[in-house]
Amino acid sequence: MPPIFLSKPQQFDELVLQKYEDFVFDLDGVIWTGPGGNTLTPHVKETLEYLRSIGKRLAFVTNNATRSRKQYLEKFHSLGLTHVVLDEIFTCGSASASHLREVILPEIEKEGGPTGIYLIGQASMEEELREEGLAWRGGTDPEDDVLLPPQDFSSIMPDPEIGVVLFTFQMRINYKQLAKAFNYLNFNPDCRLVLTNDDFSMSIPGGGSIPGEGAIASVLLNARKNLQPLIVGKPHQPLLDVVHRALKFDPTKTIFVGDRLETDVLFGKRGGLDTLLVWTGNSKPHDLVGLGDHEEPTFIADSVGELLKGVPKEKAAPRVKVPGEVREEVRQARGEVEVRA
């Protein structure tokens, strides 16, 4: 079925606002835009406040792990989106840390393998690991943040305690970090490679593209035969699994809103969610040509702010409910809590 382009108030009301209980949003190109991501898309503030006021639950997801959840919360608030709370924000970095603690490390322990973590990543990723109570080696450790003398490999040694190499975008990456990670993956036959995302390239404000995490991490794929990395971020499943464990959403009543066909729309469709593609970011109308059913969004709209067209004109905007109130109402409606008189 081809995507439905939403333009009429009745469409926004009946097809979206009345149908979905949970709204999951991408950030760049959806909530904000511009070279530094410092400009809100049209009417997004009013839209989010209205969705809260009618009892909808919101979540925000990004493939950018160069900021921690707490840093993203500061950004939301600095842009005037002050109703956003930490528990609504999910980055591929925070999801990687959560997935490590809840899924990967327990699997390794069950198999009797080593559970040490070697990190290639920035301070923001270290913050997320710390929040999950996880220890690591590497990262911003000055011991690894060096340029090796020519032909000096004396600091590259196997470590049988390393069971996971966690790779996230790192602008200060160097040969020592890559060599240590490669050596761990090669020497330890069960060592797992975890990528926060596999974005091969990314656009920059000055024009053109630069290598992303997927391109840089490809160096490690030849560390041993048939090495298959686990990729957490969009469009892969682990990130959505983390969001689902946190929110317990019903996929049939949840919609994912994004600006990229190849990540956002695919992410939602793989997770069994309906999707809304907006034109305020990366993908453009010509990108829809030749797509298969499994690649097309459910809906298309010019921007998130267009959802306000579905608000009945005679209805006054009620008080904005804080996220805790919304979640409690939903839990009570689902019979998940005992309501005492």
UniProtKB/TrEMBL annotation:
Organism encoding this protein: Leucosporidium creatinivorum
Gene Ontology MF annotations: alkaline phosphatase activity; metal ion binding; phosphoglycolate phosphatase activity
Cofactor: Mg(2+)
Positions with a binding annotation for substrate: K234
Gene3D superfamilies, sorted: HAD superfamily/HAD-like
Residues that hold Mg(2+) according to the record: D26, D28, D259
SUPFAM superfamilies: HAD-like
One GO CC term, this protein: cytoplasm
Protein name per its UniProtKB record: HAD-like domain-containing protein
